[in-house]
Amino acid sequence: MNEGDVRRAAPRIAVIAGTPQLVCGARALGVRTVLVHDAGGPVPGCADDADEVLAVDLADTGALHTALARLHAGHPLQRVLSLTESGLLPAAAVAERLGLPGNALRTVRLLQDKREMRTLLNARGLSPVRTAAPRDAAELAAFSAATGGPVILKPAAGSGSEAVFRVETPADAQDVWARFAAAGGTGPVAEEFLDGPEISVETFTYDGTHTVITMTDKDVWPSFVEAGHTVPSRLPAGVREETAALVAAFLDAVGLREGPAHTEVKITSGGPRIIESHNRIGGDKIRELVRRAYGLDLPALTVGCPLGLLAPPPAEPVASAGAAIRFLAPAPGTVRRIRVPEPERADDIVSLDVAVGDRVGPVRGSDDRAGHVLVTGTDAADAARRGAALRDRVLIETGD
Question: Which residues form the signal peptide (predicted)?
Fold first, then answer.
């Protein structure tokens, strides 16, 4: 068999709006990749690691299907994958049209539409939460009055904690409605405020069976933007078991068949309640926290498991360490001075997204954060302590 025949015999996938970790994970497994990026944007840096690169309007499913169908006819694709919000729907749509295995388009749509997801959950009595779809400030005020407490207003298809606001009383509805619109919020969804700590549940699904990889404790600012994550969660075992059962039932309800999922949950006084979910790896470097704590490479599993190249993760992965990320949020103003401390360990990371002279604003979304620190600890408590200590040693001085 010559080199060309060997290359053609290798498994082949399309990666839509792909991440470097997915493309590189495929390459390490000997899987050929067709990287498809949006024609309206720049060529991703990971293009150099792909075997083929296509520029297509990702909003045009027909054009995407035509481009991949031509390639599929000559050298069949085994999967169409994505780990990005912008790529999940196009990947599911074109995979369905090509007749390839994977998660159904209906499943991905449910996970990207908080309104439809909540309707399904409430209809099945899973994690019931009072909700409404207000059309104006008056309807938002009426819903706030009906719940008798604070409510949350958020966009149906939002991510990154963008345009999420708390409505304290009906009298606040007009002001919050205006701020929601100013923040670019669309498809408004109102839900009763859920008390208690927030966690995320990182799962991996193989052939319809869901494995909880870990639960991630979250620190959240008043703006609902994540201030940090720690794995594994330090919640009591009974709470973790109840949450795991709820998330598995939820993933069954939406029809998830394969791959990673990131499900956000509030641990309320009445039990766990699902906030939202995505059929991808959690952001904020959660994949790196999982790698440090469990030795699991989630992007590699995303490619390798459905192709039979890697075994699915064990039913109850055991953490060998703790890992934590903490985000930096200096006071609003112009950055005057930065001082980065020497890390205590070689694998401690300090990453800055600002430089002297940059203007820093309040944190209203994930992109407003000024950087992060990432550490490993002997366990979750040690990682949380080390992460907070390193964060506090980073100086980003601002002024007007």
Answer: none
108 part of a folded domain: no
Distance CA 186, CA 164 (A): 11
113 in a structural domain? no
Residue in this structure with the two tokens 């995407």, named with its chain if needed: 64
- Residue 191 tokens, joined: 């839900």
Q: Are residues 78 and 136 in the same domain?
A: no
Q: What is the chain's Cα-based Rg?
A: 22
**Structure token pair of residue 64:** 């995407």
Query: Per-residue pLDDT tens for 65-108?
Result: 999 999 999 999 999 999 999 999 999 999 999 999 999 999 99
Give the count of domains, the chain. 4
First to last CA, the chain: 68
* Coil/strand/helix, residue 138: helix
**Distant-in-sequence, close-in-space partners of 123: CB < 8 Å, separation ≥ 6:** none
Model pLDDT for residues 196-249, shown as the tens digit of each residue? 999 999 999 999 999 999 999 999 998 889 999 999 999 999 999 999 999 999
Structure tokens that stand for 383 in this block: 């990682």
The answer to whether position 125 is within a domain reads no
Q: How far apart are CA 61 and CA 64, in angstroms?
A: 5
